[in-house]
Amino acid sequence: MAMLKGRRIILGITGSIAAYKSAFLVRELVRAGAEVRVVMTPGAREFITPLTLGTLSGNPVHSELTDDREAGTWTDHVELGLWGDVILVAPATAHTISGMVEGRGDTLLLTVLLSAKCPVVVAPAMDRDMFTHPATTSNIEKLRNRGVHVIEPDEGELASGLEGKGRLADPVRIREELASWFQNRCPLMGYRILITAGPTHEPLDAVRFIGNRSSGRQGVAIAMELARRGAIVDLIAGPMEQTADPPAIIRHDIETALDMQVAALETLRGSPPDVIIGTAAVSDVRPANPIEGKAAKVDLPNHIELVENPDILSDLNASAPDGCFKIGFALAHDDGLEAAIRKRERKGCDLIVLNSLADKGAGFGHTTNRVRFVYGHDRIDSFELKSKEAVAIDLAEVIQAKLLERTPFASEPTD
Ligand code: C5P
Hints:
This protein is of the alpha/beta class. The protein has 2 domains: 2-185, Flavin prenyltransferase-like (Rossmann fold), CATH 3.40.50.1950; 192-403, Rossmann fold (3-Layer(aba) Sandwich). The chain has helices at residues 22-31, 50-57, 77-83, 94-102, 108-115, 128-132, 134-145, 171-185, 217-228, 257-270, 312-319, 337-347, 388-403; strands at 8-13, 35-40, 66-68, 73-74, 86-92, 120-124, 149-150, 154-157, 163-167, 192-197, 202-203, 209-210, 232-237, 249-253, 275-278, 285-287, 306-308, 325-332, 351-356, 368-369, 371-376, 379-382, 386-387. Helix 1 links the parallel strand 1 (8-13) and strand 2. The protein binds cytidine-5'-monophosphate (C5P).
């Protein structure tokens, strides 16, 4: 049950006689702690009313592309599509399945499916001969090849009087299959990750600052990969262009190292993380006496007194819960291995991800990176030059292996 807790499910209901079972399905999902928003095709409304589904789901039901014809407002299918962690189409008719294959947009549900970025699960329901028709078989195969998960219909008596495969899977089975699908697809569900990313800007005055060329790209790639695997990620983000907006990423935007320290420590106390990752290029120093407002050119000082910034990762590691997996980054200008080994100990990290400016294509500003995972003198894993997204996958694999050895701090046991 816990797998579905807090999950946002868009339930697409299409015009099959089995639509009446959707009422039980909504109840099952809501009982399991999911948030459900129903999108019905006009055909589905012939079989069950929006009032029933709206009452059971606790959310308004949508079925038309236009919300209110008189007022000229439309249903925001893009917003709806981006809201969900998954779209479950149950029952899915041959008609909607073929519309999905062709990418048609003639119902609100099909437009939501076209706009959505989240995964899709379908539970077909139709008469036996329709289900076994080569057109349907081939359409379902095409959806599978696109990554759509199919919950097979049950065998038994059908509304037409025929016997065979085509009955909508029982709502309890749909709920269970959805939960185990989430579990497989999102192995890090229930784990909480705290990541610092990007540069910090240290003000000289209201418009000038000391900063660095960090793009935040590596940190955001890691945040996205871990969120994709189901973790909730607190991203403490310095000023950067990168976007990271899936719902599982909670983004805390900050400017300075001191702001980053406050935001990171508050987050750590409020939501104890299972993993801490310091990818941020925190400015080592800040101007001791930033000037209020914008200083005129003539008033700019000849010398700027600098003070050292706090070491945020060390602070986080020192306050981390027992068993938290702690990862730091090190950008070296030379080989940097010995320094990385010392840095790991000094900062209280389990692992240092070392990249060197001496490697072509690695470090700030590039879309690629070449890293070594430094666990200590006796264990160093070296990787080839690859995209920062691929580095994020390598790191996520290590994190996942580590986390799955134990239960998360943040969540209840999963089913
Ligand atoms: O000491 P150095 O800057 O090389 O350490 C790099 C690692 O420490 C990175 O993980 C970085 O995010 C973190 N760090 C920090 N606060 C600082 C300096 C570095 O969190 N003031």
